[in-house]
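Q: Fold this one first, please.
A: Sequence and structure below.
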Amino acid sequence: MAKPSEILSSKFPFEPTKGQKDLFHLFDDFLINEKLHKPTLVLRGYAGTGKTTVVGAIVKTLPFFNFKYVLMAPTGRAAKVMAGYTNRTAFTIHKKVFQQTAEPGGGLVFKRQNNYHKNTLFIIDEASMISDKADYGRNGLLTDLLDYVFSQDGNRLLLIGDVAQLPPVGSLESPALERDFLAQSFGVDVNALELREVMRQAQESGILFNATNLRNQLLEEKAIIKLATSRFKDTFKMTAERLEDGLRYAYDKYGTENAVIICRSNKNAVQYNQYIRRAIQFREDELEAGDHLMIVRNNYHFLPESSAAGFLANGDFVEVLKIIRFEEYYGLRFVDLRLQLLDYPDQEPFEAKVILDTIYSPEASLNDAAYKRLYEEVTSEYEDLPTKTERIKAIKKNPYLNALQVKFSYALTCHKSQGGQWDAVFVDQGYLTEEMVDHEYIRWLYTAVTRATKELFLVNFHPRFY
């Protein structure tokens, strides 16, 4: 019987790099060794090093060793990208691992589902985004993921990501890509490998040339930015004056949903979104059918549990199909909309109440003080109900308290864009002093640059960076 490494090489469509060959050899032990305890492999890799091509070869190799596979990613957009490059179904982690169940009081809680997959390799892309801070369940997402995967015999876990990308919000590192953390926290037998050689097929790309340069700067003591555009056909520098022409070009060539501006702050994103709607789309009303929005806070109210998406997650994209009515309540403005999730083709359109105020807020979502006011005003309406249980049930079902929080999605912060890819990406340098050019900014810029698949536009960057 051939070894996994031999079959992987035969299924790989290019001449593998040294790093890819080393990875294939790791599979000889990873797939075959039955003595491993919770076998885990971490594949870290620079942009353009062939991580996605490797996954395609792995999926084709698994049946030879009686393994099945499950493909997962942290967000709907990342799962859609994964499904695109593998030509196979990919799930969000929360849809696969968790199940919504109703509490006696009428609220929803997430419980880890039973895992019925045996002898299965779970392949998780964009693992740099996975936090181990409590989120969907009582544990961190990473903890629940590992508990789920290894609750059945013969399962294995492959975590794929890039440590140069932004870590989860509020974290300094990406725990799912840290070998020592995984071994010490979860007792798994873990191996790790990092792909560093950009594949020959990608070496003509200015996007990947600049990404590689930026990533290499993260290894240097002093952060220096040097961007190259003139010798590449896919990377351009642009002043603010040319932005309108550039956006029109990208929208005409790729479609509105396949182009995005990535900027430094929510305030900048709000300004850019207003500019795009006014100057390029000629939209006069504050919200219209055809507008694209991003959900900015998890919402468990508007989708049935059986839906393809599971729930409306922070980072999901929707298109406005119809505006039903506007209203003002509790000092906030609301609108009822008919919406279509853009990254779940099997999901039926649905109706939801949306808070209009968050669209224009310079903050990421409705702030705690505003939400507290809303909660208190909603609560006061149910004071005449006879029992506490009835009051809690009514509050939890209140459509205004459960209203979706959204922003326009033509311009996004880098964290909001993570896990997604667009054909054309416009990266705005943002306000930047000499002291602000540090490793954190380079990591931000690297993550933004690597969202582009076909054309990259560097907007308002200082001449000294070229």
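Q: Good. Now the second chain.
A: Here it is, same layout.
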Amino acid sequence: MQTPSGHPVAPAPGARLVVLASGGGSNLAALLAAHEDPAYGARVVGVVSDRPGAGALDLAREAGVASVVVAPADFADRDAWNEGVAEAVAVFRPDWVVLAGFMRILAPSFLARFPARVINTHPALLPSFPGAHGVRDALAYGVRQTGCTVHVVDDGVDTGPIVAQTAVPVLDGDDESSLHERIKVAERALLVETVGRVARDGLVVEGRRTRIG
């Protein structure tokens, strides 16, 4: 990674990961399985969710990982909620913040607290088909190849610098559900691999280009 001034930052041994999740936590489960291997180079130290009933919280509890709920309903407005999320994340002193099925947009004020250290996944080959319906939109467009992307989060919606991508073919007879299930499998593998590499070797962001190591 690099600081806002452009100077590379050396990777921290045993990087601390904080995972933000809204749903069942399949990506979190994959990261928790990976972090059991000391050679992975990173460990999930905290889970933050916007939903009290999120399955990801159960996974964290079972794994002995601290978790916290920061629900929008508990805050006066969106700005206050973003500050609450930032404070909750900061408690864990993360090296990297990983969005794993987190279904809310984080404000620039949050990203400023963790510059170039927030990573997200998207179920399409960005910059094509950004937004909440990437699988549906790709299928409707008639592409023969789609996939998934790991990217650094910036102020836009799925517009941050791309770190890694994997292609997934669109099969004859695919509907949104069947295609999405295959993308999820690829997405979990790509996220685990990419986060591990970034944690072990560091990430440099130069404009739109990224480099691991």
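Q: Anything worth noting on the second one?
A: Residues 1-12 have pLDDT under 50 and may be disordered.
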